[in-house]
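Shipment paperwork, digital attachment
Item: protein structure file
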Amino acid sequence: MPQIGRDHGADNARILGLLESVERDAAQSQRKIASDLGIALGLVNAYLKRCVKKGLLKVGQAPARRYAYYLTPYGFAEKSRLTVEYLSVSFSFFRRAREDCSSILAVARAQGRNRVVLAGVSDLAEIATICALEHGMTIVAVVDPASTRTRFVGSPVVTSFEGVGAAFDSVLVTDLQATRKLVEAITAQVGAGRVLVPAMLGIRSDRSTESVA
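Attachment content:
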């Protein structure tokens, strides 16, 4: 699932993923659920207990002395509600991200800056890549110190700006957890005026960064 929400949104996304997983296979192991959802095993156990307590799931017996979890009627209703909510949030996120990225990249292109590095592997980075292609711009690389990927949407992923290995004109911040401190750190590395910050990240620009209102 996309990394759309923080806190409440991410919590609902995990519950929805858990309910969908249980609906597909009631007797699958918690370890398999954790792997599918990309979260820790202990967190899966905590969410299962919470869902049982809220009446979304009921517990039954499975072979080999394991437990099976089944959706209750309330669980099916809640899954439907969360699905609608998730799709609504997803659409709103995509629309805002597309508007921000398209606007800020259009300005960069008008200034003759056509080679862009993305800072952060995320859904925002994926949308930024689409917008860059639409504007005839090149995504040189994606910088993300925490990522284990080698490529993202066709672009190489590196852990530092020193590892980019090719010339670039601008850096578009696409880390959904970006903070003012992170933006300032990026600016210190690549130079003032080269950092582009989508307004949806909620980081006000200064002379070192550019953002879209």
